[in-house]
Specification:
The complex is a heterodimer.
Chain A: H1 3-16, H2 24-54, H3 59-67, H4 71-84, H5 92-101, H6 106-118, H7 121-131, H8 133-156, H9 165-172, H10 189-224, H11 227-233, H12 241-249, H13 256-268, H14 273-285, H15 288-294, H16 300-326
Chain B: E1 2-7, H1 12-28, E2 32-37, H2 40-45, E3 53-56, E4 59-63, H3 69-76
Parallel strand pairs in B: 1-2
Antiparallel strand pairs in B: 1-3, 3-4
Helix pairs in contact in B: 1-3
Classes of the chains: A mainly alpha, B alpha+beta.
């Protein structure tokens, strides 16, 4: 079914615009048309249907669920909920405080918050259609693992002591929360449709520019970055290429939607999977705007710890994947 | 005069919510005082996890989205 978009791009780029196939510009334009049309089509269809199913899941329910869990299951579920709960980065502070004042350990809350930007239905969908299921699976597993282990580590070092005083106080004086909201599991279809429509408009209005930026960048790399250069300089997974990719990802800020077309392009150019993944995850998860927001509830020391934790894990993941690939 | 607080850490939707409530109030000819609350601590104390949220005369009425017109009119009465 998705070959339709390749044919559409063939026709537009080579017939209508008269660009030569296999020329640099032709390749770039073709990549851009194919990916943007495909991505927007998939986004509209999938966001709507996933939202229909997900209409009864909200952040209050997630908190009530996590509040009663034993620690170990808490990290895993926190990370999984981070992946499936709809969530905009502008809510990360209220969510953090809501969890904390509900008595959920900081580590479990951070499992949720670390996984959240990395994995969501849009990202998984794009990965599946652009880079295939194997890389999608690796990406999802790595994302969950970073969230779970990051959370465990933060509790191990008693990260709650490094919160801002008011947040620490809220955590220590937490009372078990009582759920008031039990009505939404039996939503009628009309309400679900309404929710899904809102969700679709909401997510699209947020990600459309990232699709263009991401695909544009991917297309430029696709058309103009010589394969031979990548292969000679980065192709055999030189050890320093992974930490460099991670560091390069920090000042670059994108969400998962924008970075996946770039990933597609880098992989087809022969960049090793570990290096690619390390770069992309660093771009998505370790971003300055997000960290500045978290400053409201955390001390600099805790923020620096979390940043170091993320950078170290992405580097280790990158090295590991490259090593597996070349041995 | 009713005091309406819009809770939110300054995201686009929170600003829209405040503007929307103000415009509905002007249309209905009801004087209100709309304030934006951006402090993380204050938002936590209302027990809100999804913003924008709306507090009318110190009671939390709504959270998680831009409220629809019917709801806003209901608060103003």
């Amino acid at each position: 079914m998705l070959t339709f978009f390749t044919e559409l791009a063939d026709w537009l780029a080579f017939t209508l615009f008269g660009l030569a196939p296999h020329s640099k510009l032709g390749d770039a334009v073709h990549f851009f048309i194919e990916d943007t049309t495909k991505i927007f089509f998939l986004l509209v269809v999938m966001i709507y249907f996933i939202a229909l199913i997900r209409a009864s899941l909200n952040i209050e329910r997630v908190r009530d669920y996590l509040a009663g869990k034993n620690r170990f299951i808490g990290y895993i579920m926190g990370s999984i909920f981070g992946a499936i709960t709809p969530f905009c980065s502008c809510s990360s502070i209220p969510v953090f405080l809501g969890f904390t004042s509900g008595g959920i350990p900081v580590g479990i809350t951070m499992s949720f918050l670390l996984t959240s930007p990395l994995i969501n239905e849009v990202a998984v969908l794009l990965l599946l259609s652009l880079v295939g299921w194997e890389i999608t699976l690796i990406y999802v597993l790595v994302g969950l693992a970073v969230g779970i282990m990051g959370g465990m580590f933060l509790d191990l070092i008693h990260a709650e002591k490094l919160l801002q005083p008011f947040a620490l106080k809220a955590y220590q004086s937490a009372k078990p929360t009582v759920s008031k909201d039990t009505s939404r599991s039996t939503l009628p279809f009309r309400d679900r449709h309404e929710f899904a429509k809102q969700e679709l408009l909401d997510i699209l209005s947020r990600v459309w520019k990232w699709v263009f930026i991401g695909v544009g960048l991917g297309a430029a790399l696709h058309g103009f970055l010589p394969i031979s250069w990548v292969e000679t300089n980065l192709g055999s997974g030189q050890w320093w290429s992974v930490p460099s990719a991670v560091l390069l990802g920090i000042p670059l800020y994108s969400n998962a939607t924008g970075v996946i077309p770039v990933m597609e392009s880098l992989i087809t150019k022969g960049l090793p999977i570990g290096t690619t993944l390390a770069f992309c995850m660093s771009t998505v998860a370790a971003s300055f705007p997000e960290f500045i927001l978290l400053k409201q509830v955390m001390t600099w020391r805790l923020l620096a710890t979390i940043l170091a934790l993320l950078l170290t894990s992405f580097t280790v993941v990158g090295w590991t994947l490259n090593a597996i690939n070349y041995n | 005069m009713k005091e309406i607080k819009v809770l939110g850490s300054g995201c686009a939707k929170c600003i829209k919510t405040a503007e929307f409530i103000q415009s509905v109030a002007i249309e209905c000819g009801i004087p209100i005082n709309v304030v934006k609350e951006t402090s993380a601590e204050a938002i936590m104390n209302y027990g809100v996890m999804s913003t924008p949220a709306v507090v009318v005369d110190n009671i939390l009425m709504h959270s998680g989205s831009i409220p629809d017109r019917k709801k806003v009119e209901g608060w103003l009465k």
